[in-house]
Amino acid sequence: MTPPITKGGTKLSTFYEVAEKKLQVLANGSVTTPKGFTAGGMHCGIKRKRKDLGWLYSEVPAEAAGVYTTNLFQAAPLIVTKESVAKEGKLQGIIVNSGKANTCTGEQGMLDAYEMRSQFTKAIGIKEHYAAVVSTGLIGDLLPMYKINSGITQIPDAMTSNAPTDFEKAILTTDTFTKNVAVQLEINGKQISIGGVAKGSGMIHPNMATMLGFITTDANIHHQDLHQALKEITNETFNCISVDGDSSTNDMVLAMANGLAGNEPLTKDHVDWSTFVDGLKFVCESLSKQIARDGEGATKLVEVQVNGVASDQAARNIAKTVISSNLVKTAIHGEDPNWGRIVVAVGYSGETLDPHQLTVAIGSVKVVNQGLPLSFNEEEAKKELEKEHVTLYIDFHQGNGKGNAWGCDLSYEYVRINASYRT
Amino acid sequence: MTPPITKGGTKLSTFYEVAEKKLQVLANGSVTTPKGFTAGGMHCGIKRKRKDLGWLYSEVPAEAAGVYTTNLFQAAPLIVTKESVAKEGKLQGIIVNSGKANTCTGEQGMLDAYEMRSQFTKAIGIKEHYAAVVSTGLIGDLLPMYKINSGITQIPDAMTSNAPTDFEKAILTTDTFTKNVAVQLEINGKQISIGGVAKGSGMIHPNMATMLGFITTDANIHHQDLHQALKEITNETFNCISVDGDSSTNDMVLAMANGLAGNEPLTKDHVDWSTFVDGLKFVCESLSKQIARDGEGATKLVEVQVNGVASDQAARNIAKTVISSNLVKTAIHGEDPNWGRIVVAVGYSGETLDPHQLTVAIGSVKVVNQGLPLSFNEEEAKKELEKEHVTLYIDFHQGNGKGNAWGCDLSYEYVRINASYRT
To answer: What keywords are assigned to this protein (chains A, B) (predicted)?
Structure first.
């Protein structure tokens, strides 16, 4: 039995608790908390009223890494961004529009993405392949380039002031709140920061709607090491809400490290490597949870913690299967401790396990032990489900594999939003 | 381009059209249409008012085949039924209760399932291992055996009249209508019949809620051949709504062939083998569609037809991915021709295909060609979505693989039903 089940409470995860000891989480932290970054956003006219064009800029070229969607259909801007990052492993600026995804737009879409990159880099005076281009929104329409180009011409003036909140707003689509986080940690006795901003509010896994993440840090780290860390962490965080192979056409997570903190380059052999990785993971996990909590129509953040299985991968697979079950999601929406649906979802995850070893707890209330239902206090279980943050614990007591996944309840509101999104 | 896209219309599938020429679909057909079968159902008290105990009986022991859930957690009655079928490959009777699933009920659950079989076989005077035991309903509660046993004692009297509709009702849980079908076909110049009844109304794939199917025929066929045919057909029909590895703890499809039609034994070498297989497929496909149409809260049957990919398996995988997308399902509920969601779901199916070859049509309205959006008549597309039976056509023009999947729209009502099912 792992501690969380007997302990209960509302803490998000054991990792979170451990990480917090080494990290300082900053109030109002964002992508411009790390040294040398500025960001902003404006309304250029793609959406009716809300901000729809954002930028992120580093004073100096930053080491860059990206993790991209595995969807068969790749948005034009994603292809252009991959080219940029692949060339030198550096980025200095990111331009993002919301409202139109520039996907399924053929050759013209590619030309538009290139033009967007070219206009942006010319306007702010950086090398063309030092810029990433990002779009999110409705699929299939061409970008209104005259609006975007006209917006871009205003960026150099706007850049004189730093407005990360405007950046956070400009990248949203159906999100109901902006998503940000920043942490401080010590590397070689130097203070470094890692900041992050994200966008995402669709059904996420098992469906999609774009998920975007932007991570900045003033740490000194080569892009290959940054990529390695980002890739592994994405697998444990963003991919536990928006899963590889189940992802949208525009999903991407970009990280920029500009080195202004002046630490010794971070590599796997660096004495503080794990501190940095924990910091990066904290940022990605926090953003993942913010995205899950903002699921369309969601009233609750749901976290599934799986322990005691053969591997971390198996644990994440089970956690993702449970968090994706519409029947589990509606039961949680109805605050009904219907543990049978959890058991069934665990059972069809495809992992081979001894069903007689299963423990399930809804928050602090254990409902299944050794694969059999316990008589539990329905009122207490209902109270756990009434929380804004519901945690389900699953343990098979058969190994050291552990993993989490995050999602939300499924509400009437989800159906309303998605039955009338486009028209 | 396969015909359905250019042709449009409301026909369910090409297979259906072809099969209808060889088969006669009977009005009011059911499991007792084939010779020698009787069925009935009663209220024994597990549910408050509705029927909850049903039986199916063959005058003579029938060759039997079963396809069972792959869920890690297997209901006690399913284990007992597997034992029955495995022993001689014969069944003469099936006893079904609804209201309680007898799953996660430990040793007592197993004892209850054995007792149910024993009481039933004694009451109607057949060998113990000639009976299948089936339960569906809420997980975790023990069966009220005194009610079931008391119900069973009344079966011999009730069996003097044939009441297939009562059987169809007795196996339901949240279903809103009974599901049945029967066809007649000619084998060796002999008239044979295949009948079927099913139950299922949950979210089905990608979640669950029990799916049960009972198939009867008076054809003469060895249980091994019957099993082979049933397994292959289940893969193309029932598993395209309720998927292997995504199935409930109690899912099963049982087939009984009592041979009373007197044909030469059907084997793969029999001249009419394909006629029989088409008939069996027609019955299974019809029941699958009835289940999909009765999805909880569903207002429409949605069919996805995939053509032009490398294999039938790839086609079914794509079809199932699209039919399982909550975003596609809500768009259809909202009668919004949001083809972008279809494209995205195709893209995360995991199949490797050339995105530039994709054609998508909503009914008779082609919306995507060569991977790019067409300008189409929104009103016409909306009209296709207003139908009670919506068909989406997907074609990659890259192979001969084809496959269908069936589902339904996702409505407010689905959330209401499932947020308050248990309490």
So the answer is: Acyltransferase, Amino-acid biosynthesis, Arginine biosynthesis, Autocatalytic cleavage, Cytoplasm, Multifunctional enzyme, Transferase
- The tens digit of pLDDT for each residue in B219-253 reads 999 999 999 999 999 989 998 885 445 678 888 99
How far apart CA A23 and CA A282 sit, in angstroms, is: 9
Angle at A367 between CA A363 and CA A369, to 5 degrees: 120
| Beta-sheet strands, E only, within A242-331 | 252-257, 301-309
- Residue B176 DSSP symbol: S
ipTM value for the complex: 0.82
A210 classed as catalytic: yes
Q: What is the distance between the terminal CA atoms of chain B, rounded to a whole angstrom?
A: 50
Determine the Cα angle at A232 with ends A226 and A234, to 5°: 95
List the single best residue of B205, B248, B326, B394 to mutate versus A (max A Cβ within 10 A).
B326
- Cβ contact A338:A382 at 8 Å: no
Q: What's phi and psi for B324, nearest 5 deg? A: -90, -5
Q: Measured between CB atoms, does A251 come within 8 Å of chain B?
A: no
Q: With 0-12 CB in 10 A as exposed, 13-18 as middle and 19+ as buried, what is A397?
A: middle
How far is A56 from A38, CA to CA, in rounded Å? 6
**Domain boundaries of chain B, sorted by first residue:** 3-12+296-419, 31-293
Tell me the pLDDT tens digit for each residue of A32-81: 999 999 999 999 999 999 999 999 999 999 999 999 988 889 999 999 99
* 3-state SS assignment for residue A168: helix
- Range A13-22 average pLDDT: 55
Name the burial class of residue A175, with classes exposed (0-12), middle (13-18) and buried (19+) by CB atoms within 10 angstroms of its CB.
buried
Cα–Cα nearest to B256, from B75, B80, B38, B101:
B38
- The C-alpha atoms of residue B198 and residue B77 are separated, in whole angstroms, by 17
Multiple choice CATH, B31-293, 1.10.260.40, 3.60.70.12, 3.50.50.60, 3.40.190.10: 3.60.70.12
A203 touches chain B (CB under 8 A): yes
User: What pairing do the DSSP bridges indicate for beta strands B24-25 and A372-373?
Assistant: unpaired
pLDDT over 50 (residue A148): yes
Picking from B178, B111, B175, the residue whose alpha carbon sits closest to that of residue B149 is B111
| DSSP label at residue A148 | H
Spatial neighbors of A17 by CB under 8 A, at least 6 apart, are A11
Known binding positions of A: 173, 199, 210, 296, 418, 423
- Architecture per CATH, A31-291: 4-Layer Sandwich (3.60)
Distance CA B139, CA A101 (A): 44
Tokens found for residue B328:
């596609």
Contact B309, B353 (CB under 8 A): yes
A340: nearest CB among B104, B203, B206: B104
Task: Give the tokens for residue A229.
Answer: 């860390």
Shortest CB distance from A420 goes to which of B72, B336, B350? Answer: B336
**Residue pair B121/B128 in contact by the 8 Å Cβ criterion:** yes
What's the distance, CA A174 to chain centroid?
15
Question: Which range scores top for mean pLDDT: A70-74, A291-295, B9-13, B257-261?
Answer: B257-261
The C-alpha of A374 sits at a distance from chain B's nearest C-alpha, in angstroms, of: 9
Which residues from chain A sit within 8 angstroms of residue B421, using beta carbons?
331, 334, 336, 338
- The yes/no answer on whether domain B3-12+296-419 falls in CATH 3.10.20.340 is yes
